[in-house]
Amino acid sequence: MKLGVIDYIDCAHFLPGHDKCGSLHGHTYKIEVVIEGEKKEGMIMDFSELKRSIKEGLSFFDHKTLNDLLPYPSVENICESIKTKLSEYISFPFTLRVWEGHGKWVEM
Ligand SMILES: [Zn+2]
Prior knowledge:
By secondary structure, the protein is of the alpha+beta class. It contains two helices and five strands, in the order ββαβαββ.
């Protein structure tokens, strides 16, 4: 079974040398996490526990300038970095989808 939650972070970034994205600007990133596991006593995992874990992991990115954390904070690299961080907090296999504004996302 799969179970998903959504959270949001606000971040600033710029892509060095990029025509459109080369100047400092911000996005609200929608973060979708879908874990996969078996039910135990009716649940895979308590929603509130999962949300709390994700919020804690995302606090490393929220309201930060992503260029301070990553040399080239493309949404692909951001997704990879968030996946690594959240892996410390989530004990299930999970899929992560990071939306950069509306209509654009990366998943891994
Ligand atoms: Zn951007």
